[in-house]
Amino acid sequence: MHKLLARQLHKAAEDSPDGVVDLSRLIAMVDLAYEEADRERRLKDRALDVMQSEIGEMSRRVVEEAEARFNLLMDNVGEAVVVIDGSGRIEAFNSVAENIFGYIAEEVRGQNVSMLMAPDHGAMHDFYLQRSADHHACRVQGQPGRELWGVRKSGETFPAEIAIGEVASVTHRQFIGVIRDVTLRRQVEAELRESESRFRDLAGSASDWFWESDAEHRLTFVSERIGSVLGVKPGAILGHTWFEIGLDEQADLAESHRHELTERSAFRDLVFTVGPPEGKDRKVIRLSGIPIFAADGTFGGYRGVGADITREATAIQQAIRAQQQLRDAIDSITDAIAVYDTNERLVICNQSYADTLDSPRAFLVPGVPFEQVLRKGHENRFFDIGNQDFDHWLIGRLKRFRTADGHSFVLKLADGRWVQSRECSTREGGVVAVRTDITRLKRREEDLDRLRQRYELILDSAGEGIVGLDESGRVTFANRMAGEIIGRTTGDMIDQCFYCLIRADAESGHGPCSSTESPVVAAYLSGCPGQISGEVFRDSDRRTIPVDFFVAPMTEEGRPEGAVLVFRDATLRLQYERTVEEQQHELERLVAERTGELQREIYIRARTEAALRGSRERLKGITDSLFEGVLVVDREGYVSFANPSAKQLLECGDQGEDIEGYPLDLLLRIRTPLGDVAFKDAPFRQVVKDNFALSDDDATFVTVSGKALSVAYACSPLNEDEERRSVVISFRNTEVLKKAQRDALQASRLASVGQLAAGIAHEINTPIQYVGDNLRFIDDSLNKLMAAVAAGRELATTAAGHPDMAAPVAKFEAAFSRAKVPFLLAEVPAAVSESLDGVAQIARIVLSMKEFSHPGTSTKTMTDINRSLDSTLTVSRNVWKHAAEVVLDFDPTLPPVLCQAGELNQVFLNLIVNATHAIEASGKPLPGRIAIATSRDGKSVVVRIADNGTGVSPMIRERIFDPFFTTKEVGKGTGQGLAICRDVVVSKHGGSMEVADNDGGGAVFIVRLPIDGGGGSGAEE
User: Fold this and answer.
1) Do 3-26+190-297+308-316 and 856-1010 show the same overall fold?
2) Which fold does the domain 626-733 belong to in CATH?
3) How far apart are CA 163 and CA 179, in angstroms?
4) Residue 936 in contact with residue 943, Cβ under 8 Å?
5) Residue 760 — pLDDT band, cuts 50, 70, 90?
6) Domain ranges of the chain
7) In angstroms, what CA-CA distances link 211 with 223, 313, 416?
8) Which residue from 113, 108, 62 is spatially nearest to 85, judged by alpha carbons?
9) What is the pLDDT of residue 891?
10) Which of 52, 440, 684, 982 is most exposed, with the fewest beta carbons within 10 Å of its own?
11) Tens digit of pLDDT for each residue in 31-47?
């Protein structure tokens, strides 16, 4: 007899004086048992639905953590879990599903889920799934509580219970099905029905066994029923006591029962086990008995009934174990979870939920109201409600709790953390509350905002136009240079059709760009990155601008999601390409043929090597392309990976030399104020130990050669598994950055000195004017004095013939001789003239310094190029006067040019200084020769600055204007001078700048400037 039925029979008959079973009471108890089993199943189903819903929400919010948590749940949930997409194809298939259906995940992934169902159920599932896709309804075959027939790989069908829920996804629809094999439950239900049938058949007879014992407590009678329970015939246990049958195995219970027998008292519900402890035949029985006394009061033994309650005891143990497993399951979830009943009282919560409140054990117990939890949390300063009144905040919080709709909301805690809370109502009217710590996500959002601002600053400082497009061809971001090239502001370009912006005659619209209209749009829609040349823009004034593009499409899951476009003005490039087009045709044909051959060879070889590369090669390709050095070091300090940049920066010999497996201390040490430290004392070791990330923008590595390398580095932990823990060290050389900072500081100092010199020149100008004016007055006065002296000498000569005037004349002649008046009359005018020349030279130098140091403006003015060159030569005289002679050939009829005079002065100064350096470096006898000529050529002014120095080799002539390219020794040139000069002449003035060989040896730089300033007026500029 089924143990549950036996227990119910016993209870139904225990109040009857003659032992007759009360059928109505028994049926009520059976119905109650079924209701309890059904309630337990619904509770489990609801808990499973809540867990599935929470898993879907966490997957949408934090993808990586949700995937890891979902995979763990898939493998440990204990039920078969199948994930399908909107069309019914299987995407995931956990290990329990593999055991139930007999398939492995790879066999069913991508197949329609109906293959796992009986044909009629599969067709019904496809019908509901199609209707769900058409009408966005959520009803799918196998909603919670539904049963269907599954089909195993062997073809065997079995009953199954399935619960399906939809997962919120930003990409496509997904459904999660939890499948439970209910074959055993069907068998148990069949057994229960069979037991119930037997009960109805045997309702008129006793369902438990009866027994009697003598005064020595030895069994004298047992009914036949005991044979089916203990598996022995009744006669085999006669003459034995219950202690011998199994009660003595439980010493405490046996001792208590002996005391009851000694007292000759009745006993009830004595429960003990019979059979081997770990055996399948072990039974749990319950005895009740009353003492038997003869008419004379003599004790004759006991008479009673017994029942097999093995299944009832097992069910109780399973219920206790299931409850503990439920608590263990929610405690293992990292999110905080709590369940409240219909009266808003706590039913159960996991440890994470308790840990969110300070000292929760004093009040966070089952039965505590939710309002009290909020008040205790406020007392412990758990919530950050700002300046809001707590009572007002409490009312709003309780209203949200009582109308739980499953929508998530974010709370800020007093300790600075952020949590996402989600409250769902249960079928019984309770609430399931889930809290997820999203502090790291909030921090990442703040970091992304700061990073976005930094990238915008970098993009706006770039010299090329950079534009981001979405999948429909609309502008998502644009830097300053892009707006300048197209002739629009950055704000006006956002969310506009890019094709409409670069085609002023195109109709603006809100649809996607046509890939047939623009090569740029066609390129990024095709998903192929590359260079695009020959594209023509039309700015807001309908001027055509030839540009070069580099298109970098952005794809997601193989579909184009937009692109990043980098472009620059291609006018000069097109002019050059037209001059070499014919010579390139044959080369292009040969290259095309060879490229085809190489592509075929690469294709054949790629197919052979594809299986060997894998994820390691992809990762290696990424790290090899980085400018930063990347090292992976294990917890013992040994290098497990190093990219080429790291080997180059650490000077590890040959770039291809393998340094993996070497101790990090052999490659580098960190320099600190206390000395050079090894790996065990370095911050890297602390990162491995404490699992945190650190960075240092101003550190020094000491390489194996003893060289001190200034670096900025970042170090992050890499936890491959519990046993293998490493750190990733990325670093870059900051020597160039520091040198640039020093150069900028030096330039600032020189600019200050230049401003000081300009101020001193201005102060000198006023007294020099006084001196010049006085010298000119003296010069004019000398002529008058010389006439007076001549007249006096004549008078003395005439007076010498008169005796009375002899003495005064002699005195006059003596004074005239002592003063050396003839000598003074001859030399003083020459001295005054030379002084005037010197004062004029000083005034000219001061004027040149004032003109050269005059601060530039953003507007263009009409400028005398001859005068600008003359001022520049005067200011730079100290540089070239010992190294070269300057020969000038200025066109006196040269018209003024509309330009920015300050920037052109800087260009001329740079070219004159470069010519001087080239003469000094040539090794030829000094002084050399610098020839400067100006002339007019149509609507342009041409300036030629030639020298007889080293000249420019044809090998480097094409690169001479590239930024950072220099032929000077290290430390004597940055490679920026000529690049800046060309940018000023070409970009800002619409001119040209070229270099050629000088007829007398050396080089000649030719600057061509449009007289009208490149077509724009000064005000427009």
Assistant:
1) no
2) Beta-Lactamase (3.30.450)
3) 7
4) no
5) low
6) 3-26+190-297+308-316, 35-181, 334-438, 462-569, 579-624, 626-733, 739-845, 856-1010
7) 7, 22, 72
8) 113
9) 93
10) 440
11) 777 777 777 777 767 76
